[in-house]
């Protein structure tokens, strides 16, 4: 067991662990969340309610969760990885039966004080499970077909469940995150070539299924793809959102129209301005400078994660940190692509900035894992 | 699992390699996002900024107030009056039904209108006002205003609506306005945005339509900021519109009113033309309709009453209907013959009561014949055979040419609707339109204004005016627009021999002043005002030989719509003509009995510019005239009072 590799002497213990935090990441995350508070304040017309204040409370809760998770030694989390995976998987199955319906999909379990999205939990659980799996697997078996098939099953099962909810955005994120975890673990290039080829075939099959009885996606998902490919075909219907979002972003110019002066968001032309499209509000009010600043913050978080991963000689820890960074990256990259008109609108929030509890808490817990791995790294 | 040091370093090396590759890809993607952002926010910023402004800024039109229409003395013919309506905003009235119930106790509400309003409110955005009652009175508006606290969401609104205080009197001249229809929009290639304002009124017929451009004015505009669902957030700026130009007509309200009263329910029309500039001081068609009903949107029942009336109140008979001019055409035949030199005024023709031409017998109205007739006698007694004879000598082409010089067969340029050109037939016309050659009988018929010849009362008045002046005087209906006088139309000398015209006028004078004249009964006693005229009676049916054998049926014994049309044209005073008048009474019987008295009364009224002294009338007419004058005076009083109460 790898915990034997750690010497108690070099691993901080007790409250001293706090000193060994990767404080850069904490500061960066707080800065990102701060941007979120500012924008939620702005889109509410200069008011802390209804969004900014709950978001702040949740962020504080998120920080506490992160600290608690960070203080637990990383090897305990590694041993818990499959339990977490099975738990998340069980919730995904449960949500099929008792989930609340919203936006034409079954996604939530109402816990009373918050709405839990098991698919969010699964993003982290999958990363943990894959990291643990490759930590356990002898290196030389990494690219053997059977040992490649096993993680594929681990990825496909939850992805399939999420797809039936149906939540195309999360399903794609799970698929990409899982695949890239395998890539990081060192699976042979040839498999990826094969998957890409198969993926291309799969996409064409999905499109061919349209209008037949075995249609693989819901009509609204197809429409979203149509709208993405040409928003102008339906400027007042589904294409309206993306068109207005692009107008909001583009009209920001270099320095934006000023704090709380964005006409697109203030006059409600911008849809979902406090959740999926919050980046457009930022881009409209603070322009290119503002948008670039947030992007830079995100990239810095990513860079610090990669550095922390490469500093860490523990295989599980490295893979986990890279996996969390990757998940974080996928969140903001997909969201930004979507709101800039580079990707179909699939309902992925901007991490730590979009209004929403589940995603933020899960993400903060994930960064707790990163901190734990950092604190308890072999020295 | 325990790993060897070699394994550990290989694991680390592999993760580092793959991690850096993936990190590079991630950074590459982030740069792509940054470039996209730059492209949208820097390169395309101006376009997107424009789109954002278009989103948020809405142009709202402010309807201009329509120009008014006045008579030649500046008296109002068409004006704008405040029109009140009541609107409701759903979101302000919590309980729509309760508020409407309360409103119903104060204002008379139309149940259909309420149903429609409720449906519209349910459909449209909650902050949009929906009209619940239209054309409410000022009293009702005040009641609503007093009870405003109990009526949340209810607002009385004021707009301008057209009103025609003289009602029927000017319907055919001025026409009316109404809400813009799809057909109206189709008339324009690019309709002005102002036409899209709901309930915006434009001219539908008559002067209202033909002077639409001048009367309408220019819409103002305000720019407002709206949100995504169209709610107005604030007004950014506004530009006031320009009111429409006022139009002054040449019509005299009092004369026109007099004529309407004088015609009563007779199916008739009268045109009065001033001989100085060609001003039309009256154009009346009777019966008429109330244009105010059309402004509001006429009910099917009311429209049916107008449409089914056999006396056609909707038709503007004075300008759009053409009648056979009958004997009033005889001046033209005579002038053509004199102009061509084929006859002299003193030459006589024998009238045996008929003339046989081309094997067909043409009758004179007097079966026994008139005996020897010269120009003056023939016109005075309206002998037909004399003109048959003249026509055979001069030919149709010369007659047609003379008729056209005198303004027949021509569309006169006045801004009324459906102005007809009538018909002056000649050989070409018949060949092209009837596919048959001209026969001599056609010329004979045309010589007394029967057969193919058609002319409108307006053309008749122009003919009379041109005979009186010898000039190509043309009618003018609009005196000024926005205070700028429109040019008069006295015309040029027509080039007729003045001696011929003088003989003709003399003959016309004797029609109404010689004891043997057909209009002697309708003479004017006042020497300074005496008129020269001509009666006409035009058949609307063919008299068969069998009927003639039985003896000519008297008009009174025929059903109304088969009786002859009665016509009269005149100018006055004879010595120094100031006005020309034409009268047509549809199915009125004889020109001398039905049309001439009307023409005489109108002429006197016009010449005196008000009620003439009773001494101007023949004794037998004075009682009737006095009664009419008193009735009109009472009406004037009434109108004045209602105008004051409006103001």
From TrEMBL, chain A:
One of its GO terms (biological process) is peptidoglycan biosynthetic process. It catalyses: [GlcNAc-(1->4)-Mur2Ac(oyl-L-Ala-gamma-D-Glu-L-Lys-D-Ala-D-Ala)](n)-di-trans,octa-cis-undecaprenyl diphosphate + beta-D-GlcNAc-(1->4)-Mur2Ac(oyl-L-Ala-gamma-D-Glu-L-Lys-D-Ala-D-Ala)-di-trans,octa-cis-undecaprenyl diphosphate = [GlcNAc-(1->4)-Mur2Ac(oyl-L-Ala-gamma-D-Glu-L-Lys-D-Ala-D-Ala)](n+1)-di-trans,octa-cis-undecaprenyl diphosphate + di-trans,octa-cis-undecaprenyl diphosphate + H(+). It is an enzyme of class 2 (transferase). The chain crosses the membrane at residues 20-44, 56-76, 82-101, 145-164, 171-191, 286-310, 319-346, 352-370. Its main location: membrane. The gene is mrdB. This is Peptidoglycan glycosyltransferase MrdB. It is found in: Cell inner membrane; Membrane. It is a multi-pass membrane protein. Belongs to the SEDS family. MrdB/RodA subfamily. GO terms for cellular component: cell division site; plasma membrane. Its EC number is 2.4.99.28.
UniProtKB/TrEMBL annotation, chain B:
It is a single-pass membrane protein. Coiled coil: none annotated. The keyword Hydrolase applies. Its main location: membrane. It is found in: Cell membrane; Membrane. GO terms for biological process: cell wall organization; peptidoglycan biosynthetic process; proteolysis; regulation of cell shape. GO terms for molecular function: penicillin binding; peptidoglycan L,D-transpeptidase activity; serine-type D-Ala-D-Ala carboxypeptidase activity. Residues 62-236 form the Penicillin-binding protein dimerisation domain. NCBIfam families: pbp2_mrdA. This is Penicillin-binding protein 2. It comes from Roseivivax halotolerans. The lineage of its organism: Bacteria, Pseudomonadati, Pseudomonadota, Alphaproteobacteria, Rhodobacterales.
């Amino acid at each position: 067991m790898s915990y034997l590799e750690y010497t108690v002497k070099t691993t901080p213990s007790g409250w001293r662990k706090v000193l060994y935090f990767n404080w850069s990441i904490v500061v960066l995350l707080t800065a990102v969340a701060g941007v979120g508070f500012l924008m939620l304040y702005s889109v509410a017309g200069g008011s802390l309610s209804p969004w900014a204040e709950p978001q702040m409370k949740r962020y504080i809760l998120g920080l506490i969760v992160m600290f608690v998770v960070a203080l637990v030694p990383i090897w305990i989390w590694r041993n818990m990885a499959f339990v977490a995976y099975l738990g998340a998987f069980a919730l995904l199955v449960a949500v099929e039966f008792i989930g609340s319906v919203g936006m034409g999909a079954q996604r939530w379990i109402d816990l009373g004080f918050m709405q839990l999205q098991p698919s969010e939990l699964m993003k982290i659980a999958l990363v943990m499970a894959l990291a643990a799996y490759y930590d356990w697997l002898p290196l030389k078996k990494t690219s053997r077909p059977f040992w490649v098939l096993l993680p594929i099953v681990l990825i496909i099962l939850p992805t399939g469940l999420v797809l039936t909810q149906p939540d195309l955005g999360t399903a794609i994120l799970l698929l990409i995150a899982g695949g890239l975890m395998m890539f990081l673990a060192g699976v042979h290039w040839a498999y990826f070539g094969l998957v890409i080829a198969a993926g291309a075939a799969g996409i064409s099959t999905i499109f061919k299924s349209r209008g037949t009885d075995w249609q693989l996606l819901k009509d609204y998902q197809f429409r979203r793809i149509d709208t993405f490919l040409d928003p102008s075909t339906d400027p007042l219907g589904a294409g309206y959102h993306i068109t207005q979002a692009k107008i909001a972003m583009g009209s920001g110019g270099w320095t934006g129209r000023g704090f709380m002066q964005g006409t697109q968001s203030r006059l409600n032309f911008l849809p979902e301005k406090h959740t999926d499209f919050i980046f457009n509000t930022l881009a409209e009010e603070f322009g290119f400078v503002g948008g670039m600043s947030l992007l830079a913050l995100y990239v810095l978080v990513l860079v610090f994660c990669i550095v922390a991963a490469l500093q860490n000689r523990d295989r599980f820890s490295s893979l986990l940190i890279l996996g969390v960074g990757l998940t974080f990256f996928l969140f903001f990259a997909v969201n930004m692509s979507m709101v800039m008109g580079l990707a179909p609108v699939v309902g992925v929030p901007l991490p730590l900035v979009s209004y929403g509890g589940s995603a933020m808490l899960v993400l903060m817990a994930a960064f707790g894992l990163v901190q734990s791995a950092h604190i308890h790294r072999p020295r | 699992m325990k790993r060897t040091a070699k394994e550990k370093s290989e694991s680390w090396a592999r993760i580092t390699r793959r991690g850096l590759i993936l990190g590079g890809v991630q950074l590459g993607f982030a740069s792509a996002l940054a470039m996209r952002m730059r492209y949208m926010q820097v390169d395309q910023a101006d376009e997107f900024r424009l789109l954002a402004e278009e989103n948020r800024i809405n142009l709202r039109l402010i309807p201009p107030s329509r120009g008014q229409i006045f008579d030649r003395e500046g008296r109002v013919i068409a004006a704008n009056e405040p029109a009140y309506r009541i609107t409701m905003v759903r979101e302000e009235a919590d309980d729509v039904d309760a508020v409407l119930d309360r409103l119903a106790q104060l204002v008379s509400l139309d149940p259909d209108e309420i149903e429609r309003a409720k449906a519209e409110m349910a459909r449209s955005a909650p902050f949009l006002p929906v009209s619940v009652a239209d054309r409410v009175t000022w009293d009702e508006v005040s009641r609503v205003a007093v009870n405003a606290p109990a009526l949340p969401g209810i607002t009385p609104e004021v707009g301008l609506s057209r009103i025609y205080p003289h009602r029927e009197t000017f319907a055919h001249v001025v026409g009316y306005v109404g809400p813009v229809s799809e057909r109206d929009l189709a008339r324009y290639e690019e309709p002005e945005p102002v036409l899209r304002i709901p309930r915006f009124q434009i001219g539908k017929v008559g002067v209202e339509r033909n002077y639409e451009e001048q009367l309408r004015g220019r819409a103002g505009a305000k720019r407002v900021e709206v949100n995504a669902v169209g709610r107005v957030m604030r007004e950014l700026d506004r530009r006031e519109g320009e009111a429409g130009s006022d139009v002054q007509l040449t019509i005299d309200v009092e004369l026109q009113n007099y004529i309407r009263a004088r015609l009563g329910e007779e199916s008739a029309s009268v045109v009065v033309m001033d001989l100085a500039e060609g001003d039309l001081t009256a154009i009346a068609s009777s019966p008429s309709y109330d244009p105010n009903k059309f402004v509001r949107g006429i009910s099917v029942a009311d429209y049916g009453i107008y449409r089914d009336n056999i006396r056609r109140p909707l038709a503007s008979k004075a300008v759009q209907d053409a009648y056979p001019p009958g004997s009033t055409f005889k001046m033209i035949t005579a002038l053509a013959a004199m102009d061509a030199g084929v006859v002299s005024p003193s030459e006589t023709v024998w009238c045996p009561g008929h003339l046989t031409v081309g094997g067909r017998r043409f009758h004179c109205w007097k079966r026994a014949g008139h005996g020897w007739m010269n120009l003056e006698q023939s016109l005075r007694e309206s002998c037909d055979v004399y003109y048959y004879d003249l026509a055979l000598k001069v030919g149709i082409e010369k007659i047609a040419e003379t008729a056209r010089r005198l303004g027949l067969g021509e569309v006169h340029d006045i801004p009324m609707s459906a102005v007809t050109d009538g018909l002056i037939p000649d050989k070409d016309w018949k060949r092209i339109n009837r596919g048959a050659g001209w026969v001599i009988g056609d010329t004979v018929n045309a010589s007394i204004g029967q057969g193919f010849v058609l002319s409108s009362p307006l053309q008749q008045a122009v003919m009379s005016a041109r005979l009186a002046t010898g000039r190509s005087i043309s009618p003018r209906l609009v005196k000024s627009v926005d205070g700028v006088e429109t040019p008069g139309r006295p015309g040029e000398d027509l080039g007729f021999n003045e001696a011929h015209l003088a003989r003709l006028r003399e003959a016309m004078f004797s029609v109404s002043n010689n004891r043997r004249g057909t209009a002697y009964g309708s003479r004017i006693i006042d020497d300074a005002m005496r008129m020269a005229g001509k009666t006409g009676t035009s058949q609307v049916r063919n008299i068969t030989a069998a009927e003639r054998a039985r003896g000519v049926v008297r008009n009174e014994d025929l059903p109304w719509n088969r009786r002859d049309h009665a016509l009269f044209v005149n100018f006055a005073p004879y010595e120094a003509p100031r006005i020309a008048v034409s009268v047509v009474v549809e199915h009125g019987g004889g020109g001398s009995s039905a049309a001439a008295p009307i023409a005489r009364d109108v002429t006197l009224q016009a010449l005196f510019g008000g009620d003439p002294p009773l001494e101007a009338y023949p004794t037998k007419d004075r009682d009737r005239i006095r009664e009419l004058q008193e009735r009109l005076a009472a009406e004037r009083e009434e109108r004045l009072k209602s105008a004051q109460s409006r103001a």
